Amino acid sequence: MLNYENMTIKELANNCRSIEEIHSALKEIFKDTLEQALESELDNHLGYDKNNPSGNNSGNSRNGYNKKTISTRFGEIETKIPRDRNGDFEPHI
Q1: Contact of 3 with 11, CB cutoff 8 Å
Q2: Does pLDDT of 1 surpass 70?
Q3: Cβ neighbours of residue 59 under 8 Å, at least 6 residues apart?
């Protein structure tokens, strides 16, 4: 499977040979976008960006991920939902 993360639309189009490949690429792009949105929500919730030293000893921090399968227009997508140590992060997206 190709890594679509850093591809332009033109590069993406050159690598897709069928409608199914386009759908697969869009599904992967949607998944990556959703995961980035969730990471941004957690940054906002915690009050600091990932790997920022200001989060040291802040009382709450990142604590890995939970996997969740969601249904989308592109089909089912398994995504990673970030979590915090206090367990009070509730994504809004």
Answers
A1: no
A2: no
A3: 86
Predicted confidence at residue 3, as pLDDT, reads: 67
In order of 56, 76, 86, the CA distances from 73 in angstroms are 39, 8, 33
E runs forming strands in 1-93: 62-72, 75-84
| Among the listed residues 32, 61, 34, 57, the one whose alpha carbon sits nearest the alpha carbon of residue 46 | 61
Residue 61 near residue 49, CB atoms below 8 Å: no
Closest listed residue to residue 4, CA positions, set 20, 39, 17, 24: 24
Determine contact, residues 13/7, Cβ cutoff 8 Å.
Answer: no
